[in-house]
What does this fold into?
Amino acid sequence: DAGVTQSPTHLIKTRGQHVTLRCSPISGHKSVSWYQQVLGQGPQFIFQYYEKEERGRGNFPDRFSARQFPNYSSELNVNALLLGDSALYLCASSLWTGGNEQYFGPGTRLTVT
Amino acid sequence: AQTVTQSQPEMSVQEAETVTLSCTYDTSENNYYLFWYKQPPSRQMILVIRQEAYKQQNATENRFSVNFQKAAKSFSLKISDSQLGDTAMYFCAFMKLNAGNMLTFGGGTRLMVKP
It folds into this structure.
């Protein structure tokens, strides 16, 4: 079975631009969570979606938004990019919400210049 | 808010030896989950072991075991018979019960296994 997939693998954007990152969960998984991992740090929680509804939001500005589609795939959108948004963005999927194992994708490396 | 602290930024161990990674956390919750995740240089995060706070017995997964001290809010990971493939970043993580899937991660410990 395919694991969690994310696209693109790498992305370079300029300050002020907008970016969309995509995630496909493991088949049958209904929950998708997004994390930001700045180089040398642990991941930080951005959003969780379960059954297409937002179930959790981390301490990130409104420039960050996300959605989940009927097939449970998800998009993370970041507007008005800042240099500080440069990071590895991780997507994790799980069967449901609350305490069960999360499976992480390989991440999207975003560089903002 | 919960915080997770890993006080050892880097550690090294000889192949076949045992190493213990430390993790402390701060929370006012009584029921929660604790995890250790491994992130190899290829960067895909993998779950190593999981502990439910209501369980007194320490979790074990093959060569990996934890020492969970709830009163001390300590959750260390012991790796026995270390292998070269254990070289990775290790993250300790906390999750509240019935609060979605939000993981709070520590800053990580870089483990190098030497031949």
User: Anything to note?
Assistant: The radius of gyration of chain A is 13 Å. Chain A is about 0% helix and 50% strand. Chain A touches chain B at residues 31, 33, 35, 41-45, 48, 50, 55-56, 58, 88, 90, 92, 94, 97-107 (CB under 8 Å).
